[in-house]
Known about the structure:
- By secondary structure, chain A is α/β, with parallel strands linked by helices.
- Chain A has helices spanning 25-31, 33-37, 55-70, 82-90, 93-96, and strands spanning 2-8, 11-20, 42-53, 74-78, 98-99.
- Chain A has one domain: 2-Layer Sandwich (Transcription Regulator spoIIAA), CATH 3.30.750.
- Chain A is built from five helices and five strands; from the N terminus they run ββααβαβααβ.
- In chain A, strands 1-2-3-4-5 form a five-stranded mixed sheet.
- The longest helix of chain A is centred in the middle third of the chain and has 16 residues, at 55-70.
- Chain A is globular and about 30 Å long.
- Chain A starts with a strand and ends with a strand.
- By secondary structure, chain B is of the alpha+beta class.
- Chain B has a single domain, classed as Heat Shock Protein 90.
- Chain B has a five-stranded antiparallel sheet.
- The two termini of chain B are 26 Å apart.
- The chains are: A alpha/beta, B alpha+beta.
- Chains A and B meet through α3 and α4 of A and α2 and α3 of B.
Amino acid sequence: MNVTINQKENNYHVILEGRIDTTNADQFQHEIEPLMTAKDANITIDCAAMEYTSSQGLRTFLMLQKSVIAHNGKLELINMQPQVKEIFDITGFSNIITIK
Amino acid sequence: MYAKRFEPIAGKGAEIIEYLMTSPDMPDSQELQFKIRLAIEEIVENIVRYAYENGSGYLEASTEMCDGYIRISFADAGKPFNPLEKEDPDITLSAEDRSVGGLGIFLCKQLMDSVVYEFKEGRNTLTLIKKINSKEDE
């Protein structure tokens, strides 16, 4: 799993690669920590190379969405692979997080 | 039957998942493997974390094929726990109102055709059942 965050003022472009599972869910949460505290942030996460997420990864996405709302920001997930998108659909996460 | 006993289970989550995913019963379909891996991971992690006070107990993991269905079973002698009694999360709630936990078992139930729990002879046994399409059906 690899997270790359490119920041330009309030805009955050994030590239998320690999698998989020039990072995690295804590690391994932730690790495996106800066996004959880940013105010008025405009966050785009490119999920093209994200291959898998367990419920622990989903948890972190929900925490991020909650903090983005609380900080008056915007979050969008883009280019998600169909298999991963299905997990977001099944859990209702597609309704609470913008996926494009 | 493809089966192995892991003891103690502390820190062995990834090893148990890999053992099951390399079973000869596992379908070739990448899509099915994705779903099965996710379901297995949710169960294994629950057992490794919560079944025993200190992770010193065992987990028996096995797979078998039965009438076109793969059955993946887990048995432990930890405290009795029926994950199916857990209430499903309300997936219609807004992000603000949703709680961050309780997704693992729900996902597992959604991804499998059925999930069966039994407590017998002092053991929790949980079986995941998923239909494996034949090549022609795919």
